[in-house]
Prior knowledge:
By secondary structure, this protein is mainly α. The chain is about 75% helix and about 0% strand. The protein contains five helices and two strands; from the N terminus they run ααααββα. Strands 1-2 form a two-stranded antiparallel sheet. The longest helix has about 35 residues, at about 85-120.
Amino acid sequence: MKALFKKYREIIMYLIFGVLTTVVGFGTYFLIMTGAEHLLSIPMDNETSVTYITVYVIAQVIQWVAAVLFAFFTNRKWVFTEADRSKDTFWRQLILFAGSRVASFLLDLGVTYGCTLLLALWIVTPPVILGIALTPGVIAKLIAAILVIIANYVLSKLIVFKKKKQ
């Protein structure tokens, strides 16, 4: 088991922190959406209203910033351990990391929106699992998260956290 972990350590750690990043993002997103509905008394039952769309966009942006910062620091410290982590690479890596996350943010928005529209055509009554209604929006968000994790690994590995030059 130890040998297997050692061989696939980077991918395993990336997946662990990818899941945690997703939890941070989802948690932030749903906290803002729920907070807007309950604490600010903003009705969230009309997904086409200007108010809903405004809160949705704000929630998406804040969740993205929280997830990117969490992912950057965890990836830099615990995932890509062979990457150059000298002081002079910090800002370059952060800028490249944020830039690659802008691309995956656009992927997230596109997949979430597109899948929500497509799934809304097929799902009339959302199934409920563990008390969570699997609405088209929730399913789309899960699909987007998987695609984003894969894209982010490739971008981080090949562009942001290159191995130290020897």
